[in-house]
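Sequence design from tokenized structure. All designs in this work follow the same two-part layout: the structure record, then the generated sequence. An example of the structure record is given first.
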């Protein structure tokens, strides 16, 4: 038994050595070969172009340094460098794809290369969007902290300068949120194209959070401009959006922000409602003074909170805009119209009457 165990252990060690030698040989062959292979979503993508290989190598080196970056500014610059490499690789890939498609004589190799290039383009686009989203998130966090600090200062020191600073900060936050919404939607479409259901479901939470935050800060902007009716409508919409966003999101910065604004929403909504009614009341009073013989007696504010007359319709536009289908061509309608078999109207056609003798018939009066 002991002899058998020693023989088997010796055999195992010998096999390990041979396997190690084979692995080294395989690695050296891979390093010597000009074609690099990327594994992505269960498929192998060969990368023949040396410039793309170099860009991807640089990108992987930069990617390894990302976890060590704690300062937001350092992280932003690292992400920008990373994006540059992916953009460079993507543009080279696009040029190769166009030149491959432009070849007159088609071969099996060219068609296969076109498939790989399309897959590589999708991979690069996916990576680019992911890191663009990370960079946009950091920029948004910085802008949001600026908005909060400017808002606190504006409350403490009232003045035109502070109000202007608040407006500028709010507009930059809204622009950032719109950009993030666009990126998330494009990323979702790319994930659906490669049948990556996990990413498409994961991205839904952040998208709803961005939409909720945009609606909230848009309402704040209307409130600051004394457009209370619009602010009230947007706060109402924001309450529904916040509920959906909290249900769809996981733990993180965005979820905390949405939860915080969800707590503030009832107060802001009631305030906007009351201010809108008061604004309507002042308009009615000015009408009483300007128009002779007109007398509008408003009810007290508490009695009017149950109902609210808008005065004018407030239109809310969705962002991003929903896609509309192209209008059908008129030619198709003409063809369809002429191909329909209508009932015969021969029985209803008027026939010429027989000429009857007489003066009236000759004159055409009978």
């Amino acid at each position: 038994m002991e002899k058998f165990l020693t023989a088997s252990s010796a055999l195992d060690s010998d096999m390990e050595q041979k396997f190690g030698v084979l692995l080294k040989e395989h690695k050296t062959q891979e390093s010597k070969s000009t074609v690099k292979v990327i594994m992505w979503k269960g498929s192998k993508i060969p990368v023949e172009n040396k410039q793309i290989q170099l860009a991807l190598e640089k990108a992987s080196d930069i990617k390894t340094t990302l976890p060590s970056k704690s300062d937001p500014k350092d992280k932003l610059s690292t992400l920008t460098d990373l994006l540059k490499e992916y953009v460079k690789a993507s543009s080279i890939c696009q040029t190769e794809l166009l030149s491959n498609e432009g070849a007159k004589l088609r071969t099996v190799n060219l068609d296969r290369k076109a498939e790989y290039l399309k897959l590589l383009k999708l991979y690069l686009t996916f990576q680019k969007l992911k890191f663009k989203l990370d960079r946009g998130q950091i920029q948004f966090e910085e802008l949001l902290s600026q908005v909060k600090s400017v808002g606190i200062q504006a409350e403490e020191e009232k003045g035109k300068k502070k109000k202007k600073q608040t407006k500028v900060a709010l507009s930059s936050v809204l622009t950032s949120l719109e950009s993030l919404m666009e990126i998330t939607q494009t990323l979702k479409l790319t994930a659906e194209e490669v049948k990556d259901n996990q990413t498409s479901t994961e991205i839904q939470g952040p998208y709803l959070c961005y939409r909720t935050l945009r609606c909230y800060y848009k309402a704040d902007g209307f409130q600051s401009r004394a457009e209370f009716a619009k602010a009230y409508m947007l706060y109402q919409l924001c309450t529904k959006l916040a509920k959906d966003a909290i249900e769809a999101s996981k733990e993180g910065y965005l979820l905390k922000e949405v939860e915080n604004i969800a707590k503030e929403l009832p107060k802001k909504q009631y305030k906007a409602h009351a201010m809108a009614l008061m604004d309507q009341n002042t308009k009615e009073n000015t009408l009483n003074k300007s128009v002779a013989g007109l007398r509008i007696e408003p009810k007290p504010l508490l009695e009017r909170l149950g109902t609210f007359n808008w005065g004018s319709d407030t239109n809310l536009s969705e962002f991003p805009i929903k896609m509309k289908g192209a209008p059908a061509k008129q030619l198709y309608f003409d063809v369809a119209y002429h191909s329909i078999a209508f009932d015969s109207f021969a029985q209803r056609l008027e026939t010429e009457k027989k000429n009857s003798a007489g003066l009236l018939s000759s004159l055409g009066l009978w």
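The beta strands are 36-40, 43-47. We note this feature because it recurs in several other targets discussed in the main text.
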